Amino acid sequence: MKDSIIILCGGGPAPGMNTVVFSVAKTFLSYGYRVIGLHEGYTGLFNKNPRFEDIDFLKADAYFNRGGSYLQMSRFKPTNEDFEKNFNLSLFQDNNVKLLVTVGGDDTASTANRIAKFLEARNYPIHNIHVPKTIDNDLPLPDNAPTFGFNSAKNEGAHIARTVYEDARTSGNWLLISAMGRSAGHLALGIGEATHCPMTIIPEMFNKTSISVDKIIKLTLSAILKRRLLGIRYGTVVVAEGVFHDLEAEDIKATGVHMTYDEHGHPELGKISKAVLFNDILEKEFKKVGMKVKTRPVEIGYDVRCQDPVAYDLSYCTELAMGVYELFTKGETGCMVYVDVNGNPKPLYLKDLQNEEGKIPPRRVDIDGGIAGNYYKHICDYITPEDYEAAKAIIPNPEEYDFKKILNW
Fold first, then answer.
1. How would you write 301-362 as a 3-class SS string?
2. Buried b (16+ CB within 10 A) or exposed e, 161-193
3. Cα radius of gyration rounded to whole Å, the chain
4. Quick check: helix, strand or coil at residue 240?
């Protein structure tokens, strides 16, 4: 019986999923391995009747450059009871599996490590190598290396934001854009920088003060006021969704915006558009301060996850896939594959990345670094002390909209 490998995908999609999966397949097929694609993520490993299929060259060649994920994904996370009662050991034994390749975020990686230890304890040692993905770019890879999918998502997000900016300019309106990124603002900042957005609001900005609805509103109005002083009555504002998730529940309730709440009284932010929420809050503020500003909400999220990967990710994901084979032949296991700027694959061991709780902490935007620092210094529009006198013709208290005062910078 041929030696086999199993490939599965966990979490949500990102551009390049198929490139990784089918580049891994092509590489191992060329060395005589059987390649098994497992559908529904980890669900298939805890199921007596898993849905899987053999991957051959023709299938791999047809799908490697497409968006989405040919292998159906799942966020299923097995419990200890699942390991004891439902683990499908025969799937590995009957198919002579030597390597489990997982593609996903930190949760997918941690579960892969648990599976490897579980099999080893039952005298069935198997290698496991993880390929890290997320469009949020928030996994702590060395040398600020991106996670695969980020550049493709940023490219499509910037395409949408460019179109939206042109709409704002053409119609004389302000378009409010919410971008994916629950724990970090990389995608929002990347879109804002690429499109010369006059204001981008990310969680990392609030490094010297707490996040509040009032501060989000004032940062937005700071850009609108500054542009009016410049004779410009249009623009866009990009906000990372993580800004809203970091708000106190009572702060959101106080806005009076209608939404549903869970049994603990927390607003169910996952069920609503953050752009619509942002727009509703701002419209109330405009009425309060007597400003006539027309705004429209735009959400950038699910529309960037399954697009075709750009050339950068096609190459990067191919290098990651070939790196899986290189690490496997060197006996590596329990690791994530990382490819440096020269294309050399290296292992990143989960134990070295995890915190005391066993989780991989997110890589956040370096707000003091060159990318963020120069964007906020040179591209953003906002009120400064030099604008106070002129701004009084529009609003009586312009110092309250001073960008650096709001953030305590």
1. CHHHCCCCCCHHHHHHHHHHHHHHHHHHHCCCCCEEEEECCCCCEEEEEHHHHCCCCCCCCC
2. bbebbeebeeeebbbbbbbbbbbbbbbbbbbbb
3. 24
4. strand
- The answer to whether the CB of 397 falls within 8 A of the CB of 218 is no
Residues 61 and 137 grouped into a single domain:
yes
Mapped onto helix, strand or coil, the DSSP state of residue 229 is helix
Q: What's the predicted TM-score (pTM) here?
A: 0.91
Pairing of strands 34-38, 52-54: antiparallel
CA atoms within 13 Å, Cβ hemisphere of 92: 21
Contact 58, 92 (CB under 8 A): no
pLDDT of 264 above 60 = no
- Over residues 87-106, the mean pLDDT reads 92
Could you read off the pLDDT of 66-83 as tens digits, one per residue?
999 999 999 999 999 999
Range of the domain at 74: 4-148+309-353
Contact 153, 305 (CB under 8 A): yes
Report the number of distinct structural domains present in the chain: 2
- Split at pLDDT 50, 70, 90, the class of 259 is low
Q: What whole-number distance in Å separates Cα of residue 344 and Cα of residue 242?
A: 33
Cα separation of 56 and 26, whole Å? Answer: 8
Starting from the edge strand earliest in sequence, which strands make up the sheet with 174-179, in order?
199-201, 235-240, 174-179, 295-300
- DSSP assignment string, 9-68: EBSS--TTHHHHHHHHHHHHHTTT-EEEEESSGGGGGG-SS--EEE--HHHHHHHTT-SS
The tally of CA atoms less than 13 A away on the side-chain side of residue 3 is: 11
> Among candidates 36, 108, 22, which has minimal Cα distance to 73?
108
How far out from the chain centre does Cα 75 lie? 15
Q: Residues 6-17: what's their mean pLDDT?
A: 95
Decide: 179 and 187 in contact? Cβ < 8 Å: yes
The verdict on 82 and 122 lying in the same domain is yes
Q: Coil, helix or strand for 246?
A: coil
Kindly list the catalytic residues. 136
Query: What span, in angstroms and rounded, lies between the C-alpha atoms of 321 and 148?
Result: 11
The strand pairing partners of 235, in sequence order, are 174
Q: What is the CATH number of the domain that holds 274?
A: 3.40.50.460
Helix (H, G, I), strand (E, B) or coil at 157: helix
